[in-house]
């Protein structure tokens, strides 16, 4: 499996991309997933060529389409994201499918998101890019059923899925079953874990983006409530994903998680659906 780290892990750190790239290369990461605000605002220094010289690539830029903006703003920002992806040679752009959960979204609101995603997928396809919607609470991709419906409604080959394993579990679906159902649409994975269901609020955006936000409850990949080892062993060797760590001690946790992930995936006996250690 090709595994990257996310620059969002360092959102509250005063470190350069050059330093992050040095760490990533030294510890065996395959690439660096750029958070949109970082991709746009990194100053002169390391670029796509510099990353390539270190054996790294940008597999995805994680940002947010302006789905609710006026038409001209939506068009302009989508075009800017395409240019940004070209600058970093990233083949994928990640977005969220709206800002409301599927049960809270009216038919008219859903139709609007569908139209915008279809249009954006067409624009990205024209640039040789793929648009990924992330499995995430508070969006139209909060359950497997809603996401499948969304994919059918948009009906564009450039629209794919960023399969966030923990968020699928959070939404009440079995990740193994959801993975099998969505297999033809999945293009990337986000990997993170949590101590228990009661701690899932630590991943709410308002908490994640706050420098003084709560980090207690976030765990290393193989220490949380979801048992990742069986799930990871079902993935094909060419699968791509990122360790999405939001807690403290970024360097230590990311390096250790990657080392353990490599050990787990090297064993590769294909197992059945992943298990959950607890329902806490």
Plain-language structure description:
It is a single chain. Helix 4 links the parallel strand 3 and strand 4. It contains 11 helices and 10 strands. The chain is globular and about 45 Å long. The chain has a single domain, classed as Divalent-metal-dependent TIM barrel enzymes (TIM Barrel). It is an alpha/beta fold and 280 residues long. An 8-stranded parallel β-barrel has the order 1-2-3-4-5-6-7-10, surrounded by 4 helices. Strands 8-9 form a two-stranded antiparallel sheet.
Radius of gyration: 18 Å
Question: What strand line-up does the widest sheet have?
Answer: 1-2-3-4-5-6-7-10
In the residues, how many domains can be counted?
1
The computed structural class is alpha/beta
Oligomer: single chain
What is the CATH topology? TIM Barrel
Listing every helix as H and every strand as E from the N terminus to the C terminus, the arrangement reads EHEHHEHEHEHEHHEEHEHEH
The average pLDDT score comes to: 94
- Envelope shape: globular
| CATH superfamily heading | Divalent-metal-dependent TIM barrel enzymes
Q: Outline the low-pLDDT stretches.
A: 271-276
Number of strands: 10
Largest sheet: 8 strands, parallel, barrel
Terminal Cα separation, in Å?
30 Å
User: Number of helical runs?
Assistant: 11
CATH class: Alpha Beta
Helical residues, percent: 40-55%
In the CATH hierarchy, the architecture is Alpha-Beta Barrel
EC number: 4.2.1.118
Protein name: 3-dehydroshikimate dehydratase
GO molecular function, one term: 3-dehydroshikimate dehydratase activity
Enzyme class: lyase
């Amino acid at each position: 499996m090709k595994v990257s780290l996310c620059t969002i892990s360092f959102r509250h750190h005063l470190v350069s991309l050059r330093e992050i790239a040095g760490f990533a290369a030294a510890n065996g990461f395959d690439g660096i997933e750029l958070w949109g605000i970082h991709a746009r605002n990194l100053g002169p220094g390391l670029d796509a060529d510099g990353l390539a010289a270190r054996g790294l690539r940008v597999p995805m830029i994680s940002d947010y389409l302006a789905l609710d903006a006026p038409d001209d703003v939506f068009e302009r920002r989508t075009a800017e994201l395409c240019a940004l992806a070209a600058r970093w040679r990233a083949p994928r752009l990640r977005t969220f499918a709206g800002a409301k959960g599927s049960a809270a979204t009216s038919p008219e609101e859903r139709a609007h998101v569908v139209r915008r995603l279809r249009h954006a997928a067409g624009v990205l396809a024209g640039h040789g890019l793929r648009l990924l919607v992330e499995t995430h609470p508070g969006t139209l991709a909060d359950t497997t059923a809603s996401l499948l419906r969304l994919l059918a409604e948009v009906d564009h080959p450039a629209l794919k899925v960023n399969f966030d394993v923990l968020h699928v579990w959070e939404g009440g679906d079995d990740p193994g079953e959801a993975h099998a159902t969505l297999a033809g649409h999945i293009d990337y994975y986000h990997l993170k874990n949590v101590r228990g269901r009661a701690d899932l609020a630590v991943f709410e955006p308002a908490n994640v983006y706050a420098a003084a936000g709560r980090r207690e409850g976030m765990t290393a990949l193989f220490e949380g409530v979801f048992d990742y080892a069986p799930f990871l062993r079902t993935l094909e060797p060419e699968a791509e994903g990122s360790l999405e760590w939001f807690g403290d001690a970024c360097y230590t946790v990311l390096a250790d998680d990657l080392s353990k992930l490599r050990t787990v995936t090297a064993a590769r006996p294909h197992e059945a659906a992943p298990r959950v250690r607890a329902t806490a």
